[in-house]
Amino acid sequence: MELTESHTLPVPQQRAWEALNDTAILKACIPGCESIEADGENAYTVALTAAVGPVKARFKGRMQLADIDAPNSYTIVFEGQGGAAGFGKGDAHVKLEAAGDESTTLAYTANAQVGGKLAQIGSRLVDGAARKIAGEFFRRFGEQLGGDAQQNTDEAAQSAASDAEGEPQAEGAEETPKRKRSWTAWISKS
């Protein structure tokens, strides 16, 4: 699986770099994260609970920061075990670039492999879950950095539009969480 995205953060590049290296901020932003603890130089142990389709598990893993070019980029190498649910491992290259005095563009490319039950449920569900987790992370990260409501609303609208798979909605209609999950439930029953 490969995931490539970019996001505009409402802070200067140095502030974005500091936040990406602050374990308290990361713990608050990563969906299902229970702990992030230092485990050597530029290494961390992580525990989180995640659900991918019908598979929900508690994962324990390790991430290592490599190729550090502060405050511009680094590579995160990660691996985790979820017991009977399987495992995940891979890497993500993260790049920060100033987009003016008060904003920063964060771009990343993540490559991951999964095994066990996670691999059996299909790449479409795994990819969808990864995009959903990434979207939630950046929504929370923007809030932690003091992002304005408009930027967060724009990202939520883009996410909702992609989840609706192009189906038109009545103006002013709210999309319920049940609607967002319906395609996942349908696929997992197949």
Automatic annotation (TrEMBL):
Query: From which domain of life does this come?
Result: Bacteria
Q: Which InterPro entries match?
A: CO_DH_gsu, START-like_dom_sf
Segments carrying the region annotation (Disordered) are 145-190
Acidic residues: bias regions: 164-174
One Pfam family, please name it: COXG
Which residue stretches does the UniProt record annotate as biased composition, category Low complexity?
Answer: 154-163
Q: Which PANTHER family match?
A: BLL0334 PROTEIN (PTHR38588)
Name the UniProt record assigns to this protein:
Carbon monoxide dehydrogenase subunit G
Question: Whose protein is this, by species?
Answer: Paraburkholderia silvatlantica
